[in-house]
Amino acid sequence: MPSLILLPELLQSVGALSQPTESAAQASCIDINHCRTICNIIWSCLATIAACTWVAVHWNVPDPRSGMICVNLDRIAITICALLVPEYIIGWAVRQWLTAQQIAQTNEKLAKEARDCYRRLWTVTHGFFVIMGGFYFLDPKSTPRPLSREQVEERVENSSFELPKKSDVDDKSKADMFSKVVASLQTLWFVMQSLARPIQQLPLTKLEIATLAYTSINMVMYGFWWSKPLNVGRPVQVRHQQMSPSQPRRSQTMDTFQTAMTHQMDEYGDADVFSTSPSFSQETLVMVDHSSPSINDADSMTSWSKKIKGGSPTRMQLYIMKLACLLKTIMGAQDNEVDLLKLSKVPNFYAGVPIDVHIIWADFIALIFAMVFGAVHCAAWSLMFPSQAEKLMWRAASMALVGIPAIYILVVTLYMFEKQRLVKYLLLLSLITIPFYLLARLILIVLAFTTLRSLPFTALETVYWTTFIPHL
């Protein structure tokens, strides 16, 4: 793999960062007040990425019984996802934003119909708080669990839900003004510097271009989560009372995709090349079904079992089942299989079971910004690289970040126009491109550092007014 081949070179280049090149030394002799070191570049870029990501990502409420280690491990995992696939986090943010608005509108209407004289206005912040698991049942006889949106709606309808003030919900948020100001100033400083350098004919490094891409996409992410409380450590407790059983809300979008996958099984199920292996027993099927979050309800079990001959799935059938599971996760419809009655916290990337239209729009918006993310990397198309191979790898990886999301946009567009047959085959093609997309992202990260070993002396010059602006 090209990225693995470049890893030793990355280590060598990082080790040599403290040793200035001859051209850099000459530049420092001309005017030391208008020069920067490679360490300055790395620190500025990493500080900007860290500030943007830390402020932009809004986690759900953790399990009240979890320790700080488990909570921080979850947050680190989500942060890594935000660095590797920020477009997926944008899709999550858009789904939560759309669902939060719907929850606020629905509950406000129910509260008016219930004629609650002491009701408070439902806001988007309250909608976010419901989605992120902000309300928990208080029952000494059982483990705490979050309220679903259906349970909240039922309580609002019978006037048994005491809505907290928006100011009280905001008070639980850890998004203090100081952290927002520091992150905003650091981001503004970096963007202004990046725009000013080309004006003065000073080149940007590849690491700065990659940082600019992260900055742009994190600002969009933060915008959709603007009304969502940040880093809420403890939920609001609600007294438990007997409620009528409510049917979990389900989105129909991924059910349609799963039907397409089932039809695909019909086409390959009788092929001799995918004959049943002795190792694929009924126990294997049960294990796959229970371990997969998309194939664990009774209806899905019945649907898949009808396609299996002799009680054992073929290799292709197991492969299609796993693809259906992966597809739900990628498209953001994994909430269908979440049963909050059995969980002590809402899962990561939970969006409150958005309706199918919201899922489609969220995917479309996320894919658009994924292409923007790749297009920013294309800004280094004509810049100098240490070698021709690295230039070609950067160009190919940048084009992959633009082209692969375009395939998914085509899939979403065809689905909206009900071109099911084309959607079915393009879905299989798009799933194959996922490893290449992740590889392209890894290549760009590695090249952003390895190309620092050979920079023109103009890349080490600063914009003249930047040395007088305080920054991190």
TrEMBL record:
Q: Which residues form the signal peptide?
A: 1-16
Q: Which residues cross the membrane?
A: 41-59, 121-138, 207-225, 359-384, 396-417, 423-449
- This protein's source sits in the domain of life called Eukaryota
UniProt keyword list = Membrane, Signal, Transmembrane, Transmembrane helix
For region Disordered, the annotated ranges are 148-170
Q: Does the keyword Transmembrane apply?
A: yes
Protein name per the record: Uncharacterized protein
- The species is Athelia psychrophila
